[in-house]
Specification:
The protein has helices at residues 85-95, 124-141, 148-162, 220-225, 233-253, 256-275, 286-302, 325-336; strands spanning 17-31, 36-37, 41-42, 46-64, 71-76, 79-80, 105-113, 174-177, 191-192, 205-209, 307-310, 316-320, 345-349, 355-358. The longest helix has 21 residues, at 233-253. By secondary structure, it is α+β, with helices and mostly antiparallel strands. Helix 2 crosses helix 3 and helix 5 (233-253) runs antiparallel to helix 6 (256-275). It has eight helices and 14 strands. Bound molecules: ligand DP6. Residues 29, 32-34, 40, 46, 122, 124, 163-165, 220-221, 224, 270, 311-312 line the site of ligand DP6. Ligand DP6 is lined by residues 29, 32-34, 40, 46, 122, 124, 163-165, 220-221, 224, 270, 311-312.
Amino acid sequence: MTEQDFILKSYNSNVKSGSVKWSAPSNIALVKYWGKKENQIPENPSISFTLSNCKTITEVTYTKKEDNSLSFDVFFEDKLNEAFKPKIQTFFERIETYMPFLRDYHFKIETSNTFPHSSGIASSASGMSALALCLLSIEENLGVDYADDYFNKKASFLARLGSGSACRSIEGELVVWGQNKSTQSSDLFGIKYDGEVHSNFKNYQDTILLVDKGEKQVSSTVGHKLMFGHPFAKERFAQAHDNIAALKAILASGDFKAFIKIVESEALTLHAMMMTSMPYFILMKPNTLEIINKIWKFREDTNSNICFTLDAGANVHVLYPEIEKDIVLQFIKNDLVSHCQNDQFISDSIGKGAQLIKH
Ligand code: DP6
């Protein structure tokens, strides 16, 4: 498919108003997206677990208007929010070619997250995918009827233009984004992982340890730019392809130890890229390292299959099989929670993707 396939050709312009509502989950990358080209095209393929509990819930009310402007208001947790507007304005400008009705309506966007505000958890993936889904449902309300497969692809395509990782938040349980030789894939949208998945990886658990809830030190937009002219960029992008190929075999065989190696190495490589860019950043905090060391010691002592991954920040995602839920949660409560801000953590697990609430 190409970009052209996502342009809405005709619609019923007599619809006066309506509202739609979606919930969309966050996701956690196993092989990381870090570096992009023009138009939100990734430099390398990535694959993620879709989460279940960490979600954004968004309602969009649309009202026909006369002028030709892009017009919207954003309410976050019931309060008018000016801070979110620029990102959404950019998003609308990027997608209007594909959604020509955007200038016909005023949109009231009401959004909230299930996870604590400013927890340091990236809400752009869940937020942009929820908004993309709402806009696509509005498109359907204007008289088009899409098959599920096309609907999901277009939703993911639009979400990508809001935030790259958001394109992996439409479906579950594993989603691939970025062309590669090992899986079904596209640079334009995320695709539900089509390979075999061993029962070891079913209902995998992700406990998110909130180490640092402050503003991100490096926005992802700035972060991705650090890969331009980065001395190790070429090798890193090639490594992501190799890791996707390796992970495919691991997901099928159920080999926990091999899974852990790829996932932890990906997290540390992401941070290594930031430490070796110009300018350079250290996004881990002392407590991030304390947690990593304790996870490694616990794994050695108990032969657990616990491991960690990181986003572009200090928080730690602790990943483990469902069968180890009780002992790992006990370990987290006894030994890791003291390294979190206000002892905060969020228990999550793999989810099935976004849900329509109102059409
Ligand atoms: C480190 O999707 O937030 O979480 O496309 O600029 O919005 P933009 O970036 P974003 O980048 C996320 C990067 C990451 C790794 C990942 O999720 O794959």
